[in-house]
């Protein structure tokens, strides 16, 4: 059980670290392009190109900041212990899928099983928080029954 939490946690860490690496590479690429760009006789074209590179760098910096926030949030989540109610770090099995309450990282595959890595602040995460096995809730017209909480 705790092994499952550790494996899911590691998959989330890998996801976040990949996002950080991608953002850093994109920033480096934009900075390198800006450094290589030389001013031509078409001054406006040069300025427009530099502005576009700056905007791309700004977007990638924002993505890097968000990925770092995810990493901080993920590092706060414990991977040991059992909980009766849904909280951050819980693995929740429902009649409509299994969830890992951590950060929004999409679908995590472990062997033949799939888990949705969701944030506690997401709409479904908010509905699940504090629930226990046997509790029911609905979201967007879909009924969920919590089968187990780990």
Could you explain the architecture of this structure?
The chain has three helices and six strands; from the N terminus they run ααββββαββ. β5 (136-139) and β6 form a beta hairpin. It has a six-stranded mixed β-sheet. The chain has two domains: 2-76; 91-149, no CATH class. It has helices spanning 2-36, 43-76, 123-128, and strands at residues 91-94, 97-102, 106-110, 113-119, 136-139, 142-149. With 150 residues, the chain is an alpha+beta fold.
Distance between the amino and carboxyl termini: 7 Å
Low-confidence stretches: none
Q: Give the helix level as a range of percent.
A: 40-55%
Mean pLDDT: 90
Q: What distinguishing features does this structure have?
A:
alpha+beta; 6 strands; 150 residues; elongated; 6-stranded mixed sheet; single chain
Topology overview:
Layout (H helix, E strand, L loop, with lengths): L1 H35 L6 H34 L14 E4 L2 E6 L3 E5 L2 E7 L3 H6 L7 E4 L2 E8 L1
Parallel strand pairs: 2-4
Antiparallel strand pairs: 1-2, 1-6, 3-4, 5-6
Helix pairs in contact: 1-2
Organism: Mucilaginibacter mali
Protein name: 3-oxoacyl-ACP synthase
Short description:
This is 3-oxoacyl-ACP synthase. The protein has 150 residues and is α+β, with helices and mostly antiparallel strands.
């Amino acid at each position: 059980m705790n092994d499952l939490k550790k494996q899911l946690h590691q998959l989330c860490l890998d996801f976040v670290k990949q996002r950080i690496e991608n953002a850093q590479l994109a920033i480096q690429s934009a900075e390198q392009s800006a450094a290589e760009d030389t001013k031509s006789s078409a001054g406006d074209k040069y300025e427009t190109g530099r502005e576009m590179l700056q905007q791309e760098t700004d977007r990638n910096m924002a993505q890097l900041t968000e990925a770092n926030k995810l990493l901080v949030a993920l590092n706060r989540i414990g991977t040991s212990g059992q909980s009766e109610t849904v909280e951050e770090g819980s693995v929740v099995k429902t009649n409509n899928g299994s969830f890992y309450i951590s950060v929004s990282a999409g679908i995590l595959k472990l062997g033949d099983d799939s888990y949705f890595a969701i944030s506690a602040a997401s709409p479904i995460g908010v509905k699940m928080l504090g629930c226990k096995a046997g509790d029911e809730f609905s979201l967007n017209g879909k009924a969920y029954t919590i089968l187990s909480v780990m």
